[in-house]
Amino acid sequence: MLNHATRLAAFAALGRRLASLSEDEITDIAARARNRNAWFDQPNVAAAITGIAHMLAEPALSQWAGRYPAEPASPRQVGVVMAGNIPLVGFHDMLCVLLSGHTLLAKLSKDDTVLMDWIAQELTDIEPAFTERVQFVERLNAADAFIATGSDNTARYFEFYFKGRPHLIRRNRTSLAILTGNETAEEMTALGPDIFQYYGLGCRNVSKLYVPAGYNFVPLLDALQIWHPVLNHHKYQNNYDYNKSIMLVNAVPHFDNGFLLLTESAALVSPISVVHYSTYTQEIDLLDQLTDVAAQTQCLVSAGGRYPGSFPLGRAQSPAVSDYADGIDTMEFLATEL
Prior knowledge:
Blueprint: H1 4-19, H2 23-36, H3 42-55, H4 60-65, E1 77-81, H5 91-99, E2 103-107, H6 113-126, E3 134-136, E4 145-149, H7 152-161, E5 167-170, E6 174-178, H8 185-196, E7 206-212, H9 218-223, H10 234-249, E8 255-256, E9 261-264, E10 274-280, H11 283-292, E11 297-302, E12 310-312, H12 330-336
Parallel strand pairs: 1-2, 1-4, 2-3, 4-5, 6-7, 6-11, 7-10, 9-10, 11-12
Antiparallel strand pairs: 8-9
Helix pairs in contact: 1-3, 2-6
């Protein structure tokens, strides 16, 4: 019987399985994923797998699951439109739907079919009863409720298409870093994964910095030099070369360390290889700016996580199982809206 205890045990076992994958196994699945999506190289696939293994580690998994009803009032078929911008980004929705006792009807992104197929097979190998609960489909007509992740434009479409049935719709989000000028070299280096992991394609990637007026960018750019190998990826280098040429042709003031471009802009979301920045003069000025963009912010990072509500530098890409996309509690939605 696929009760709550069985479901929870299966996901905990999946976490252990992922944590024990050999280098050869990761190399194999990463190669297959990259054949479909060139952005999914081995370091980033490995990072995603490690992140999920951490997410499924006990006792944190049980403690998180224990906050919600063990069984649904009425099991439903939940349609999930999954994103594919970074490896296995749809896994958390799979976890929430299945652990809460529902059936998953997932429309996979064409950019992340290989890894999602693989992890679903790993799960059903551990607990075959999940086979009937995991369905990858092209259309979600049979779903009783919906979860969808997309752009602000597609969100409007989702709102219209799914009206009349329970739905959770996520929109564009990005992540921000607060710098004071007092960060150590180690803290500035720690910002690297927040910017460069997954090549800046995720909503937890820092795409904008808030810095004090007159901030000296040279120490930061020097501290980030260890990420120079991102240029080895042809797609990243193409983006860097293109964005640099546009800035030069248009005489846009910017800083350049050879693989990252920093430019002042009010915009939150930046192109690949570019990070925007805005300045502040006092903390109240910073607070006003952050309040204005709160609805578009996935997470904040600051040195030591000292700014209220922020993660430490270097931790943006390490969400806990309870860190929900868009700050919307998926498990609460599945427990109360269905």
